[in-house]
């Protein structure tokens, strides 16, 4: 059984769209790029409408074990960001 999860990326503005930053959430990508989360969400909305954007979302497939390990890492990162660890 495989799970699909979104990965958020900031990409270059040329025809190659090379990744500049990769994150598990829009909040994390915004923090990495020094912009607001709404700017990232707006860019992803543009991408889903077929327009050119510097922020995109891609879906990757993971096995159930990989997904469980990934979600544990995400939860730990969220706890660190909230100051709980």
Number of strands: 3
Task: Provide the helix percentage.
Answer: 40-55%
Number of helical segments?
3
Strand order of the largest sheet: 2-1-3
For the terminal residues, how far apart are their CA atoms? 32 Å
β-strand percent reads 25-35%
Low-confidence stretches: none
Q: How does the major sheet shape up?
A: 3 strands, antiparallel
Can you describe this structure?
The protein has 85 residues and is α+β, with helices and mostly antiparallel strands. It has three helices and three strands. It starts with a strand and ends with a helix. 12% of the residues are buried. The mean pLDDT is 89.
Summarize the entry for a quick read.
With about 80 residues, this protein is an alpha+beta fold. The protein has one domain (about 1-80).
Keywords:
85 residues; alpha+beta; 3-stranded antiparallel β-sheet; 28% strand
How does the SSE layout of this entry go?
Elements: E1 2-11, E2 19-23, H1 26-33, H2 37-48, E3 55-63, H3 64-82
Antiparallel strand pairs: 1-2, 1-3
Helix pairs in contact: 1-2
